[in-house]
């Protein structure tokens, strides 16, 4: 089968298209023919062997993926596809089922024509694909939507809450806008000029163009500020939070972890940052919302597998709207 392989850390050009052995599913696994995957920030870190935040987190990346060279040579987390065969112990899926899901950590492997996935496992989740989505649209759901759902629940967003989403056009931000609206919040989305219409189309009640206005200085206050891209700081946003307000961070470093610890001990305003857990029941819940017309994914660009290096370069430029998909 064809797969994208990398044997050293570096720029996008270290990704090479090669022929590798097609995997064989174990008794508890399914062989999935992959139709679409995505380019996530975590994949960029794994490919480069570097974390943008600090030397400490870069060390964590290297400990996980390999100190000198990658332990796992095929990357790719999110995926959608069709089950080609199942092991004898698989009960919930069968040949021909269309599925979507995400792996985590070293499991990876979606940058290939086929992948073997356990029916139930701790390193990711898989569920039947939403019937009203294409494979490309479905592949762009799991990571961003599961992360957004976790934080919105963590903040206990209620009907009538005023919620600001920073990075509202990004992979996590697009789902945060839609889910906050679904839970009844009044949503303000923050993005650049070229993305205003997109964020409006996702259901945002108001949009702020950060190139023209600083939302931390306009006198507005919010019950929740969700920074999906780590482009501000708690210190800057604290004055824009109402008493008992929550500041959410899906991308964070040591500074934010210390702030979370400090605000949990004293003060009414809270910083919340944590890795989002991956749960199958949440992926099924998202499927139901999608099929009910309450949630959709936004795809910026789509690349064939052979052009994955170009896809990585485009994402690294930092201007994508929604997701970049690889077919």
Protein described:
It is a single chain. This protein has 10 helices and 15 strands. It is of the alpha/beta class and 327 residues long. Strands 3, 4, 5, 6, 7, 14 and 15 form a 7-stranded mixed beta sheet that branches. Helix 5 (171-182) links the parallel strand 8 and strand 9 (186-191). Helix 4 packs across helix 5. The chain is globular. The chain starts with a strand and ends with a strand.
Short descriptors:
seven-stranded mixed sheet; 10 helices; alpha/beta; six-stranded parallel sheet; 327 residues
Compact description:
The chain is an alpha/beta fold and about 325 residues long. The chain is about 30% helix and about 25% strand.
Secondary structure: elements and pairs:
Elements: E1 2-5, E2 16-19, E3 29-38, H1 41-48, H2 55-65, E4 78-86, E5 98-103, E6 114-118, E7 124-128, H3 135-139, H4 142-154, E8 162-166, H5 171-182, E9 186-191, H6 196-201, E10 206-209, E11 222-227, H7 234-237, E12 241-249, H8 254-265, E13 270-273, H9 280-291, E14 299-303, H10 308-316, E15 323-326
Parallel strand pairs: 8-9, 8-11, 9-10, 11-12, 12-13, 14-15
Antiparallel strand pairs: 1-2, 3-4, 3-6, 3-15, 4-5, 5-7
Helix pairs in contact: 4-5
